[in-house]
Design brief:
Length: 208
């Protein structure tokens, strides 16, 4: 992960590359990716699936600050803060691009949009791995990996006819780990709750 951060992250242009340097005049034959121009798609550009998997990896390792920072870097809206950035990015700021060019005068330009599965991975990275909303076999738990300067955040989760209002508080400036898990005023030692379709509004308070 340290090597990835040192060699593949371009914070200035908002790109997390798949590899570097791009294949160009090399005698090596890595396969079809060399057919792309240097810096385009898998040949040294940001292949967004991989960039998001790196964000998920940072979250899984407990580096909430890095996970959130790099989530922000590849967020398409961040490519449109100035007129210059808009002219460079050239694609929609409200959908994930499957790739972003990573080399030369096209660096930072968005590639294919709309068709990509990267959008669902981006959603999973933010909701499941950074905010930490985990649901498995109808069991809800919270396992965050957030920046330690976040004081609190909230999630509204609807399960069939029921609503779960979740408030996560971070009074001690942590990135991970939950100390208390309180459901409708009752602390749950297991720090998880079975989802119930009871048509009620349920309040969950999580203390990190």
């Amino acid at each position: 992960m340290e090597s990835l951060e040192n060699h593949l992250v371009d914070k200035q242009n908002g790109v997390i590359k798949l590899l570097d340097p791009a294949f160009d005049k090399s005698k090596l034959e890595p396969g079809y990716i060399k057919a792309y121009l240097p810096g385009v798609r898998e040949n040294g550009g940001q292949y967004t699936h991989g960039a998001i998997w790196a964000i998920i990896a940072w979250a899984m390792l407990g580096f909430g600050d890095k996970a959130a920072e790099y989530f922000k870097i590849i967020n398409p809206i961040e490519h449109t803060k100035t007129k210059e950035a808009v002219n460079r990015y050239k694609v929609e700021p409200y959908v994930i691009a499957a790739d972003v060019y990573g080399v030369g005068n096209l660096i930072g330009r968005g590639g294919w949009t709309w068709y990509t599965g990267s959008s669902s991975w981006m959603y999973k990275a933010g909701i499941e791995y950074i905010l930490g909303l985990k649901i498995k076999n109808e069991i809800l738990s919270i396992k965050p990996a957030i920046p330690n300067d976040w004081k609190e955040y909230s999630i509204r989760y609807e399960y069939k006819s029921s609503v779960y209002n979740i408030k996560v508080k971070n009074p001690n400036g942590k990135s991970t780990e939950v100390e208390k898990f309180i459901v409708n005023g009752i602390e749950i030692e297991e720090k998880q709750v079975k989802l119930i379709d009871n048509g009620k509004i349920n309040e969950i308070e999580v203390i990190m």
